[in-house]
Task: structure prediction
Amino acid sequence: MNVARHMEAIVIAAAIVLGASCYATAPAPALQVASSSMHSTASFNVPDAHIVQVKARRLTAAQKAFFA
Result:
């Protein structure tokens, strides 16, 4: 068998085997299980996200035409 003739297939097969072995030997992700108790240390009065308020005047028709 002429190895130089089938070098492309050999390289592709080696890449597939290497990729499969990387996935096979990778560690499994740790399980994350939600707590079943109803007790929480977080305060329910504090919002989780910041509140942003934008206060501005609306553009007039002339200003809209200028920016468009």
